[in-house]
Amino acid sequence: MKVVLFCGGYGMRMRNDRTDEIPKPMQMVGPRPLLWHIMKYYAHYGHTEFILCLGYGAAKIKDFFLDYHEEQSNDFVLHDNRVELLNTDISDWSITFVDTGLESAIGERLRRVRDHLDGDRYFLANYADVLTDAPLDVMIERYHRSGATASMLVVPPQSSFHCVDVAENGEIKEIVPVSRFPIWENGGYFVLSQEIFDLLPPGGDLVADVCGTLAGQGRLYGYRHNGFWKPADTFKERAELDDNYARGIHPWTVWETARAAVTS
């Protein structure tokens, strides 16, 4: 299936200051940008046709792929001043770059790339700022089995805050970590059908306008994932991912896990 990635937001919570022109998808995690890790995840499961919804920082994203250096993350042989790659990252990827506007909402960005889906009945979508080790093949299979119009990955609450049960007189009855509540958060990985465009108005939102409506009709499926899931929505979160990568802790790199299993 084609993969629509929303890459056009300003990402203000990620940037060091207003002079930081690097868009959120291009922030580094290890030797590659966040966007590359997400695309590599999809490619591992065989989904290599990408549609990038661009906006802020579009030139940075385009330049990265136009001047892509395979040798930075692959073994190679240098002979007679020529590079012979022993592995490849993106040679089988198809990437469509679409300017969807600086101020467009997620739903509007999706509307503006609809023609690039080539009429495919089903497609995948992602906020391009979250990493996970969720089994995408199982997620898709469960979606089709459910008969739903759309599906989203849902994860346990990630907040470190506590909820407080306080009486009218100010007496605190109980303090409970948010993570202990039996609720689920939107994990940002979607499996969608073309039917969603019937519910998506100009300038609309994918979750509020589409998923909210489908949920009320029993046509939205949630794949519950208790494994690794980590957003990179802020500078601190991205720095934590980068630090863990340097220490060899990167459970989202499912392609490396699979390669290790084959060679062992």
From TrEMBL:
Keyword NADP: no
Keywords from the named record: Nucleotidyltransferase, Transferase
Residues spanning the signal sequence: none
Domain of life of the source: Bacteria
Keyword Chaperone among record annotations: no
GO molecular function: nucleotidyltransferase activity
Protein name, UniProt field: Glucose-1-phosphate cytidylyltransferase
